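Troubleshooting log. The previous structure file for this entry was overwritten by mistake, so regenerating from the original sequence record. Sequence copied from the archived sheet and checked twice against the printout by T.R.
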Amino acid sequence: MKKAYLLIVALLLVCCMASAGIAGQKAITPSTASPAKVEAPAAKAELIDLNSATEDQLKSLPGIGDAYSKKIIEGRPYAKKDQLVSKKIIPGATYDKIKDKVIAKQK
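Regenerated output below.
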């Protein structure tokens, strides 16, 4: 019984040491390969201004159709984009879909 216990402990120790050694290794890359270039994140898609967008531009947003685009235009001007929800122009679920695609620019 004691030998089996010692064998199990020894195996666990070997496994832990082996996994720690593997985790600490660097990835092997060919020496002829050039260093990886870190590219800048892709430019953000153009934000649509709630205060000046056309009906067609608004309809290009997810969840925005004829009715919501007309309500957005009728509710102008907006000081902040979250006024779409506070003014009850669109529901919160729809706002969550478009909030990263719109802006409310001030003149």
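The two ends are 83 Å apart (CA to CA). Archived copy saved in two places this time.
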